[in-house]
Amino acid sequence: MKIKVDERLRIVLWWLVLLVAVALGFGVTNSLKRSIERSSFSDISIAVRSKRSDIEKDLNNAVSYLSLLGADETEDGFFRGDDKKFAFVREQLRALAVGVYDFEKDEINLSLSESISYGENLENLKTIMRNACSRDSVTIIKDNSFLESGDLGTLVPIKNDSDEAIGLSFGFFSIEGFASKISESVYNGAGYCLLTDSQGNVIVPSDKFSLYMDSANAQNDLSDGEVSSIFDNLDSGKFKRFERGGKRFYVYALALEDYPDYVLVAVIDGMSIFKNLSLATRGVIAIVFIILAVTIVQSVYFFTTIKKRKTEFDDVLNYDELTGLPTKPHHKNIAVSILKKAKGNYAYAACDVSEFKYFNSTFGYDYGNLVLKYIANVMSDALLKDETVSRTSGDHFAMLLHYNDPDDLTSRLMHILDTASVLPVTDDGRQPRAVFTCGVYLVGNESDINRIRARANVARKGLKKSITNQIAFYNEADFNTELEIHELQEDLLHAVDNKELAVFLQPKYGITNEEVIGAEALVRWNHSSKGLLSPNVFIPIAEKIGLVKEIDFYVFSAVCKQLNQWKAEGKEIVPISVNFSRVHLGDDDFVAKLIRVTKENDIEPKYLEIELTESAVYDEMERLLDIMYLIKEAGFGLSMDDFGSGYSSLHLLREMPVDVLKLDKGFLDDCSDDNQREKKVISHVISLAKDLQISVLAEGVETESQKNFLQEANCDMIQGYYYAKPMPMKDFAKYIEESGVK
Ligand code: C2E
Ligand code: MG
Ligand code: MG
Fold first, then answer.
1. Domains in the chain and their CATH numbers?
2. Average pLDDT of the segment spanning 5-13
């Protein structure tokens, strides 16, 4: 699966961008917030300061006019002032009432606007004058107990020459009039002002303020206590933040300059300050969301692409491109999981199309592929639930099938194979048939597929070639043989180096005088654990793994060395024949090697005879003849071994320059006393060979009657247990001495 690097990179980049955007968003929002807060605070403080100076101007104005009232001190005291003057001041100040109060006399002189009356409240006013005011500085009070329609009073102390307060001049103003200036909105209607005393008691409230305080907390009006808790401990010139009803407010307090006991307080709705910020924040959030959306889309696309590609990749890995069947490893996984949850019995069938290459070579590769697809279809169509089939390699198919009864399984399998045998029609209208060999292993309580498959294959390999479909069930003995062969193969690789091979000699006898005229070298394998092994067991394995050449030359050298030694010891020597596998025929330097070994051991080639088996004849006749001539030319004896064991062709004898024809033991086995036909065949083969100047040796002579028959039939030489079994080389010299050499 290939995911391009830039695709991964793009996703990582998108997520990075998203992270950066979020971080920036936070950063930007925060710094925006700070800067908006800073600039709003400065705007607010400017607005409040200007309001303060307006208010103080008015207040100073009122204080100066009111001071005028206390300036007219008479001998009777100051309070009997000029009514006109009182009226003038009241009008100038647009006050509801102005007047003076004499502390000593506890008397009040006042001028009232025509529209109001104070009724019985004069006594209340006196009480206010006595209690609620400072005698040192201007007092601003809010009280309804004197006037019914106005309640804001400004009280200015009247002092004598020794700076003692002797009375108060006062003015009462309608709260709307005087307070409107205070409670006018600041900061574009986002905030409102109030006047409090230094203890936080509200003197001039703001209706608007109460309104939005109420809207923030619809349950109740603000009590005085609540208000003062907000306005208490305000540092002049500082902002304070408070929350109410989930809303945020800012409070900015500014003490009046000339009347420091009074504080102008602005209350600003947090929302209005951050109105712009919330716009900016929304913008940032929108951008972050857009980036998030793009990132998610990209990621989803990326991961679904990966998944899709992974599925495609898995398909390529797990399914055979040609047939669509699970590949061998995938089939193994499927089979394991079926077996693990298996209910009932399962059988593993390994099937092979015999001579499949015939379809390729005769009808072309396309047809060959069609055949494989056809077989795959037939097999997979035949599957039931929880069964599987795979093309394990080339023309090999494996099925894991459920069964109840082995006989039913055989019928079912045979039916599948028979259906698969009838192949599609070729382009030229022919309908070839396939032949299957199928090994079946009945799976027990196990799920090791390699073990299961190996056993099914052992059963399959045990089948001989046939023209009909064949099924063989695995049995343990087959497997053990196979296993043994496998083990021997391993051991054989070291047998030569470990000097485990031994050369035995079996004497050959002349038929007339019955004396030893030569011997055949036969190899044995002294296996470390299995004991002495016959060449029939290990030579086929050695041929398969390419070790036979080494073994043959090992035997040949050993024979040459032994001959050399006997010669050196002054002993009589006889020609010894050595078996050579047909595998040597492919080597150009085969004969050269034979010559070299004889030379190294100083042995004349006439003491050595090369045995080639009859089966070599069919491989490559021309080449065989060439090599035979070279062998003869070099001076070696040459014999044709196992003659009669295969499909011997007598006329070939004419062309082959062999010295000896070795009649296979099988010939003799069929030639009992009452089998005259066979005897005649042997006699004629012998006489034919003799006509061609070829000597005849009979192998495997075990009985006297066999010997007698061979004598009668004019056979030249005899080799067999009747005279002697193969013996170790060192025993052979003694044997000859005792039995005598011709
Ligand atoms: P072969 O060359 O035809 O050897 C004759 C076989 O017949 C020998 O079996 C021998 O022991 C056996 N034999 C001889 N007389 C009798 C008898 O009276 N009765 C019976 N039942 N058997 C008899 P061996 O030694 O087991 O060799 C088997 C085959 O192995 C040989 O058949 C030969 O083809 C092959 N072979 C042996 N040694 C070598 C070798 O060094 N190289 C190669 N390439 N093949 C060898
Ligand atoms: Mg032989
Ligand atoms: Mg033989």
1. 2-61+178-288 (3.30.450.20), 70-173 (3.30.450.40), 328-474 (3.30.70.270), 484-739 (3.20.20.450)
2. 72
Cα angle at 523 between 629 and 542, to 5 degrees? Answer: 80
Nearest residue (CA) to ligand 1, atom 20: 700
Reported as a pLDDT band with limits 50, 70 and 90, residue 220 is: very low
- Buried b / exposed e over 117-156, threshold 16 CB at 10 Å, is ebeebeebbeebbeeebeeeebbbbbbeebbeebbbbbbb
Give the Å distance between the CA of 627 and the centre of ligand 2: 18
Let me know: does 273 contact 10? Beta carbons within 8 Å.
no
Find the range with the poorest average confidence among 110-124, 153-167, 562-576.
110-124
Q: Is the dihedral of CA 438, 444, 447, 450 positive or negative?
A: negative
Residue having the nearest C-alpha atom to atom 33 of ligand 1: 579
> Pocket residues for ligand 1 (CB within 6 Å)?
506, 522-523, 534-536, 539, 548, 551-552, 555, 579-581, 611, 641-642, 665, 699-702, 719-721, 726
CA-based nearest residue to 100, from 111, 84, 115, 88: 111
Alpha carbon distance 117, 615 (integer Å): 151
**What sign has the CA pseudo-torsion 426, 430, 431, 435?**
negative
Q: Given strand 239-244, what is the order of strands in its sheet? A: 202-204, 191-197, 262-269, 247-255, 239-244
Q: Do residues 591 and 631 lie in contact, with contact meaning Cβ atoms separated by under 8 Å?
A: yes
56-96 pLDDT per residue, tens: 888 888 888 888 777 665 555 555 567 788 888 888 888 88
Q: Which residues contact 629 (CB under 8 A, 6 or more apart)?
A: 657
CA distance 150 to 625: 147
Question: What's the gap in Å between 229 CA and the centre of ligand 1?
Answer: 123
For 190-214, the pLDDT digits (tens) are 777 777 777 777 777 665 555 444 4
Pairing relationship of beta strands 202-204 and 191-197 according to DSSP bridges: antiparallel
Report the residue among 508, 522, 609, 699 best suited for mutation to probe ligand 1: largest number of ligand atoms under 8 A from its CB.
522
Cα dist. 307→2, 9, 178, 366, 639 in Å? 12, 17, 78, 34, 71
Which atom from ligand 1 is nearest to the alpha carbon of 662?
3
146: its two tokens: 């004197």
Minimal-distance CA residue to ligand 1 atom 37: 522
Ligand 1, atom 46, residue with closest C-alpha: 579
Cα(162) to ligand 3 centroid in Å equals 161
Q: Are strands 152-159 and 165-173 parallel, antiparallel or unpaired?
A: antiparallel
Q: Whose CA is nearest to atom 3 of ligand 1?
A: 642
Taking only the tens place, the pLDDT of each residue in 134-189 is 777 888 887 666 766 556 788 888 887 787 888 888 888 776 666 677 767 777 77
User: Which tokens sit at 68?
Assistant: 């005028």
